[in-house]
Design a protein that fits this description.
The structure holds two protein chains of two kinds. Chain A is 71% helix and 5% strand. In chain A, the strands form two sheets. In chain A, strands 1-2 form a two-stranded antiparallel sheet. In chain A, strands 3-4 form a two-stranded antiparallel sheet. Chain A is mostly helical. Chain A is globular, with a radius of gyration of 22 Å. Chain A has one domain. The longest helix of chain B is centred in the middle third of the chain and has 133 residues. Chain B is rod-shaped, with a radius of gyration of 72 Å. In chain B, α2 packs across α3. Chain B starts with a helix and ends with a helix. By secondary structure, chain B is an all-alpha fold. The chains are: A mainly alpha, B mainly alpha. At the A-B interface, β2, α1, α2, α3 and α4 of A face α1 and α2 of B.
Chain lengths: 257, 192
């Protein structure tokens, strides 16, 4: 029985740079997207082909879900490059992890392929990108000082001195809440990355254990479960990213006219 | 006493440094245990950026663009069909209005024509009546003239016949003076 370790295994090195099994899986996903992308880019037309029709159908469902969060198709389209990429990359990466050979083919007693989302580096990279871009978009959408005032509410504190002791007290509390907001922003990165990593890693461990115990038929329901987990985790990550983007780009309370 | 205090302070500083180092080592080992690595993180960040670029520029952007184009085409078609429907209903309305106007116009013309026809008929009737009366009058006059002519002719003929008859009866040729007297007497008798 080969239980995967928390850290991905280094398969080979390019100079000093380690190439891990999760990275190979990420490259496989990139290759799939590249081939699919070239085909679609060449064939895309108003009268859709079968592949285009399928992707459009899937994308349309996704956009409708996104619209429910953003409440506006224009906003959805603005966030689609990031959120769509996150969704499809996580989905395909998770499903690639279920293909035969992933986790079972070994090289030098190490797994040659391993689901890319079982690498905390990738999940942290995606989470950090999502949260960072949400702040950047928020800055552009709301304005620098208004956005900064969400976290460090010194402006409100200064204004409160003219209004009296209760306003000062409220402003101090808001200032403290602002610091909590900063901590919650860090928590966003942690929760996003660890949730995805934990779910996919746990699934990989479960599959490894089940396949080791009984190789035939018994792992099938768990594989189906993993298919579902793949979709759910992609959905959760992308939806949360979308929520962060929507919240960051909406005006803070009291600023709306 | 004072030196002891300094020693104690130095010792506490050293222990703090050691505990800090231990904590950083522990943190590093946790991160290493989880597989977090600076270069790996950067590599995965690049991977994600590449995926995002491929997905957006080769798949999502062209497809969403085509979807938007198709949506626009559908919207335009619907708007056009609405316009066509509106134009059609307008045309139908205008056609109906024109038909109604034409009907009204036709009725007016018919009424006018009837009126004119009736007037013309009356005029013609009166004219015809007048002409007929003229013709009848003319015919009467002609008849009178003819009657008079016939009467004259008849008188002359009768006189001639009477002369012939008398000549035969008398079997003699009387002179012109006697002849005339006889004729006049005969005519008087005829008149009476």
């Amino acid at each position: 029985m080969h239980i995967p370790t928390l850290a991905p295994d280094t398969i080979f090195r390019l100079g000093d740079f380690p190439i891990t099994n999760t990275m190979i899986n990420a490259w496989i996903a990139i290759l799939i997207f590249l081939i699919l992308g070239i085909i679609i880019k060449k064939r895309v037309s108003l009268k859709p082909s079968k592949i285009q029709n399928f992707i459009e159908y899937f994308l349309d469902i996704l956009l409708n879900y996104f619209d429910q969060v953003t409440g506006d198709r224009k906003k959805t389209m603005r966030f689609l490059p990031l959120v769509g990429s996150v969704f499809f990359f996580i989905l395909i990466s998770n499903w690639i992890g279920l293909l035969p050979g992933i986790g079972s083919i070994t090289w030098d007693n190490k797994m040659l392929f391993r689901p890319s989302n079982t690498d905390l580096n990738l999940t942290v990279a995606m989470a950090l990108t999502s949260v960072f871009l949400s702040h950047i978009m928020g800055l552009f959408a709301v304005g620098f000082f208004a956005y900064l005032n969400k976290f460090v509410q010194i402006g409100s504190l200064v204004k409160s001195f003219r209004k009296g002791p209760i306003a000062i007290f409220t402003a101090i509390i808001e200032l403290a809440v602002g610091f909590l907001e900063i901590i919650s922003e860090m928590a966003k990165v942690l929760s996003l990355s660890l949730r995805l990593f934990g779910n996919i890693f746990a699934g990989e461990v479960l599959m490894s254990v089940m396949i080791s115990l009984v190789a035939f038929l018994v792992p099938t329901p768990f594989m189906l479960l993993e298919v579902l987990v793949g979709v759910i985790q992609a959905g959760v990550f992308s939806m949360l990213t979308l929520v962060y983007l929507t919240v960051a780009t909406s005006k803070p309370h009291g600023e709306e006219t | 006493m004072f030196l002891n205090l300094i020693d104690m302070a130095l010792a506490s500083e050293e222990s703090a440094e050691v505990s800090g180092e231990l904590a950083s080592i522990a943190n590093e080992s946790v991160l290493t245990g989880l597989g977090i690595n600076g270069s790996m993180f950067l590599a995965q960040l690049v991977n994600f950026a590449v995926v995002s670029a491929i997905l957006w520029f080769l798949i999502l952007k062209p497809i969403t663009k085509k979807m938007a184009e198709r949506q626009k085409m559908i919207d335009d078609s619907i708007a056009n069909s609405k316009k066509i429907d509106e134009n059609l209903s307008k045309s139908e309305k205008s056609y109906q209005e024109k038909i109604d106007m034409a009907k009204v116009e036709a009725n007016k013309i018919m009424e006018k024509a009837n009126c004119e026809a009736s007037q013309t008929a009356d005029v013609l009737k009166a004219k015809a009546k007048k002409e007929i009366e003229g013709v009848v009058e003319q015919a009467r006059r002609n008849i009178q003239i003819e009657k008079e002519e016939v009467m004259l002719g008849l008188k002359k003929e009768t006189a001639d016949l009477m002369i012939l008859a008398l000549e035969k009866i008398l079997n003699e040729k009387i002179d012109l003076k006697k002849d005339k007297e006889l004729i006049e007497n005969a005519l008087k008798g005829v008149k009476d």
